[in-house]
Amino acid sequence: MKKVKATRLRKFIQWKMVLIYLLALLGVTIVLTMAIGPVYVPPLEIVALVGCKLKLCGASSSVNEVIIFQIRLPRIFLGILVGLSLATAGATLQGLFKNPMADPYIIGIASGAAVGAALSLTVFPHFFSIYTTPFMAFSGAVFATFLVYTIARVGGRIPVDTLLLTGIAVSLFLGAVLSFMMSVAGESLHNIFFWLMGGFWLANCS
Fold first, then answer.
1. Is 41 exposed, middle or buried (0-12, 13-18, 19+ CB in 10 A)?
2. In 3-state terms, what secondary structure has residue 108?
3. What is the pLDDT of residues 151-199, one digit of tens each?
4. How far apart are CA 185 and CA 21, in angstroms?
């Protein structure tokens, strides 16, 4: 019993140290990301600007303050949020399939979202807004998931192997649909291409 408790305590301490190291690495990465760019901002100046924002020193109105807090920091926070979302989605699918290599492409979620976004940018360009395309992408992902689960259902059950094979088939089919839509998109092709690439340039504090 003591050996079991000691082993659990050792694992807990190891995971705690790993978490501390990862948080420290995240902090260093955030500072470097705020510093590096077309305009270099020294890390010490970043610390000073953060202190001014926290009312630890006098007010500052430098150009670097605008660059840090209006441009770079919102993109960093959005990137962290997106990373957390992707990690959650990946962990969920890995638990579902009991496979550490599982990802949203396996059951067509990513392909369905891409088709939904492309549909928004090509068929409904006059209704385009900052909310329309994400909503259509989410709807496409939900539809793809529903389609996969409906096809994979066998006798009221959904075997994991059948779900996996169905997901791959639906993902390939939706990928072909996306390729066709891009081939006939015309002037909307660059919008689809840049949306699929993704980016954080629209992030702001408002």
1. buried
2. coil
3. 988 887 888 888 888 988 999 999 999 999 888 888 778 888 888 888 7
4. 47
